[in-house]
Fold these 2 entries.
Entry 1:
Amino acid sequence: MKITLNVNGKLHDIDIDPGEYLLDVLRRIGYKSVRRSCNSASCGTCTVLLNGKPILSCSTFAASVDGQSIETVEGMSDGEKLHPIQEAILEEGGAQCGYCIPGLIMTGEALLRENIDPSDEEIKLALNGNICRCTGYEPQNRAIKKAAQVMRGELDE
Amino acid sequence: MSFDVQMPTSEEGLVSLLSKESSHILAGGTDLLVKIRLKRVIPKTIVSLRHLKGLDRIEDLGDKMRVGCRVTISELLNSEIISRHARILQMALRQIGSPQIRNRATLAGNIINASPAGDSIVAMVLSNASLSIGSANGERYERVVDFIRGPGVTTLSRGEFVKSITFEKTDVLFPQFHKVGQRNSMAISVASVGSLTSESEIRLAFGSVAPTVVVPIDACEYYSAEIDSFDEERFVELAMKCVTPIDDVRATAWYRTTVVRNLIHRTLKVWRKKGYNAV
């Protein structure tokens, strides 16, 4: 079947198998930031934004999001210039093996769009579906907090 | 994968597709798609609710509320009517999965999944919820407690689907939802105790300690009958009669029994400390 996906503002007409998962389709058309880890809706690595909200692409049929808007990390940076969340993750040591980072950044971005000044507790709650085996979460929580400060204009990049 | 995905726009189209062999209804897909990946479900046809008209509202019906089968957990958590009139549901829904899961998963889906651990089922049982079930023959209504027959087993037959869930507003009762899991998020409960309490009434429901979510009716009746000579130990013993847990990957039966007993004591303690003055 044929579907249209709007990925990071770019329209893609794609031929898919009706049973194909969004994760597989996104990777197939080149969005390799979207990662497969648990493949069973448990880890958050495959998180993308669907109409602005974080969802798990490993447990979403591509067919069921036909015509909708998807955002991935590829759409975050502006050329060579990283998004404040990406920058803060690097600065705070929020990425070690790096596997969970694309999903975490998308969840963080959705949080900051709704709430540009989240408390520590709100950050923890928002990110609790993005599992990381390396960092112990504290550097990632600090990074989201720092990115929010930058985005509010309170801290220089 | 060799199956077809259909997206009917009308209820007639939906029920006719559902009457075919091995057709499965898809709402958020957070349970179904995992089962398909694990080959626990091998569908011929997936019938998506995505283009269905309606059944996507949270309605205020006076002393009750109605939630359509397409309403997601996130929508319920953001709903003002739910936070005003169904705090117990809100408490339970916050315990489900992660933000990503809650953005896709639906209340109807969590009920139909019929897990003994289903967090929303505990809240729905406490709120005397019933389901409107549609089919080619029209509509039937069934209470959630009767609808769920065992782990993953419901009375839903081929060609039927849950249209909406109706449940009581419970503003006047003090809500509590205690859940013990292996971690704070993305955790299926080891044991859970939900309750709604007033001076003369207690409603209790337990998750993960029996083949379905269970209600300790004897204990609830004892509470109302013995207001003046209430004996906590007696109450807990009566409540524990419906606790028949199993050993599984998450916990042993012994641990579950201990946890649920402690959670019942905690429920009474919190009620005396905070609830009594709050309602």
Entry 2:
Amino acid sequence: MGVTQNVAVTFDNIAINDCYELANGKIELVVDPNKQLLDVDDALGIIDDLKYKAQALLDAKAIGDTTQYNAILKDIEKDKVKLSSSNTINDETKDFVVNNINDLLLCERQTNSNTNKRIGAINCDAVVKNFIPNEYLEEPIIDESVQLGLKEYVADSEHWEDLTPEKMRDLCLDAGVKAKVLQNPKTAPYVNELFPVRIGVIFENAVLKSLDRPKNGASYPVQNPNLNPKSVIPDAIAESGTIQEKMVSEKKTRVYYWWPNGVFIDAKFTLRAEKMIYFKGNNPKNEDQIEGFLNVLMKENNAFYTTSWLGTLFGIGTPIKKSATEANASYLVIVTPVGVNLEDKILREAGSRNIAVLQSDCQYFKKGKDVYLKVSTSTLKNDAYLRNKVRLIGTYAGGASLIDFSK
Amino acid sequence: MSGNHILKNLNPYGIKFPNYIDEIIDDLTQKFQFNKTELDMSTDSLSLFDVYFIEKKPIIDEKYINDIILGLVAYTGQSYIYRNGGHWKMKLNDDGKTWIPIVVSKYGYENEDYIAYLYSTLIEDEYPSIYAASIFQEKPNTYE
């Protein structure tokens, strides 16, 4: 962490969900009611914001917007007062930040009064740079991508077998899914149309349960007007994230970025003989779905950042516009039965957009009449095509989910 | 890019949706030209929609789906409650505007996914299956 804080908190019966969010219980900051304190979020926010305010200050100065410039300067002074009275930040960090603010304010005032920019031992440019987001200044020392919000269940000791498309169909047959279609005189004539659809839904439902992901209820508009459909609805959404470690004032600082919509997950089932998921035309009604996924992922730039590990844990961060694909944080995860391949064009097209494609397949085991499915650990499929290969890929895997054949 | 909830601008009843269930289902019955007695809340009645899509071959585009999705949400949810118990609960989406009808099972499990399953089968499947997409759970997932 770039900003160290000594904060007293109590944890009351907390539980963390698979998105690393607080699902249950509460965390309380222990405060002395006689002191005026900033809470952790406020303190973090002020420090993170200061860097951007300093940049905005320079921008305002560059374009000669004195109103904006003076407003920001005033704002920074207010932040200084708040931070000075804060007990949630340790003295060392507080001194560092407050001293930098003092230097900044001093430099700016002197600069505005047309005196020499160099004041005593203080190099004004260097002072300002302390506040500027480091991504604008230098290459990061490390630049890793991690998958935030992933979950891998502890594998159990049952004997799991490969779930092929044919096996999935046979399990559905055994469970009476086809028989139900045939028993209803109105649906019986259309068994060839309805049975495959029902298998597909049963498969998808079991996959999402295994990944412990809710079915996504949001549609994402596709930017390319030539594609059909005009919006896409991935089966599930997950967060992606990156960590950048940079030198800031000779201190290593970790900056965490995450994108709430950085990962699209889609379950694909096919009974086609060629066992292939195609870039186009998997379904005539939904011809460009995969290209639509890539199109939307490529435009994803709603990120959050924080320098606090706690921030990532509880989804606390500052919104920022930052391209997920440029930061190596776009992922398309396709879950299929065993033996189903992804057409090379999917991998190539995604790679050219710097979107990683991961594929997971599935396994099953039977326990009496019950059949369980689990999503196997995902593998990166388009490493050869990715524009930028510097990334650490998280893996996707699921727990055992009881397949619901009631459809 | 943030997505839009699939019921955005499609639930004019807002938080009062449960009060209008009968009216919404009547409207759906007319759109599909079913007899009222056919939609008897049974699981088999859900298949009537599947057969309709195969036989009538309507052009199922976004406009068509937007016209029928609220009715299907009302019917599938209400028929589940009729057969299994439970009740409706309205949830305000993150956008602060869209009220989402949640089906709460008799054990308290809140079903929301069925709406997306309904929408997905309509927009993705060559032969949409309302029967298959009517996915409701009574209890949370458990893992072995």
